[in-house]
Design goal:
alpha+beta, Ribonuclease Rh, Chain A, 5-stranded antiparallel sheet, 34% helix, ribonuclease T2 activity, endonuclease, Ribonuclease_T2_eukaryotic
Length: 226
């Protein structure tokens, strides 16, 4: 029987594409933090984690590899599953700084697992699982968004602020333009929801964003209480 070379070729291509996906390159990270008050107003069904109500502070949403053309890789390595034992020394800090607000109440593992599988696996050429989560925690320590805003007189007090003023306060503090994302609450008020900072591929230095996310913010936005 003659060997079926077409099958061999197809298998080779599939193997090549699999390896290519697992070693996916990227250009920069989006480091994304969200305001819990806006998350809860948007979802109308947020649940505090099992550790209790998070602090009234921006929480980490994720550290996302991105391309300069605006695209991004995702789910790059199905064999690389979230392993809590690899980040056991970080859990208490993750609970404080990367809390889950989804329902039903959880301990954060589902949230962290989702972020690792979808985004972290696409940065394994630079960061292993422990490094990935530790890098996000260090970035949050480096850039205290709530302090930056409150120092500029922008407080989570349900008042409305000029979007340009928020952007300028952050840019003045860190030297780079942030990306701002908003939501609408049940009363159709536009709220400050997420803030994007761009980070180099080592996940250690803030950089100017090659491309900013497309926000949906009005010229004046509410900074809700939490």
């Amino acid at each position: 029987m003659k060997p079926n070379f077409s099958i061999f070729i197809k298998l080779f291509i599939l193997q090549y594409l699999s390896v290519l996906c697992h070693s996916q390159d990227f250009d920069f990270f989006y480091f994304v933090q969200q305001w819990p008050g806006s998350y809860c107003d948007t979802r109308h069904s947020c649940c505090y984690p099992k550790t209790g109500k998070p602090a009234a502070d921006f929480g980490i949403h994720g550290l996302w590899p991105n391309y300069k053309d605006g695209g991004y890789p995702s789910n790059c390595n199905p064999d690389s599953v979230f392993d809590k034992s690899q980040i056991s020394d970080l859990v208490s800090r993750l609970e404080r700084n990367w809390p889950t607000l989804s329902c039903p109440s959880g301990d954060g593992n589902k949230f962290w697992s989702h972020e690792w599988v979808k985004h972290g696996t696409c940065a394994e050429s630079e960061l292993d699982q422990h490094d990935y989560f530790e890098a996000a925690l260090k970035l949050k320590e480096k850039v205290n968004l709530l302090k930056i805003l409150t120092d500029a007189g922008i407080k989570p007090d349900d008042e409305f602020y000029e979007l340009e003023t928020i952007e300028e306060a952050i840019k003045d503090a860190i030297g780079y333009t942030p990306g701002l994302e908003c939501n609408k609450d049940g009363s159709k008020n536009t709220q400050l929801f997420q803030i994007y900072l761009c980070v180099d591929t080592s996940a250690s230095e803030i950089i100017e964003c090659p491309v900013l996310p497309r926000g949906s913010c009005a010229s004046r936005v509410q900074f809700p209480k939490f």
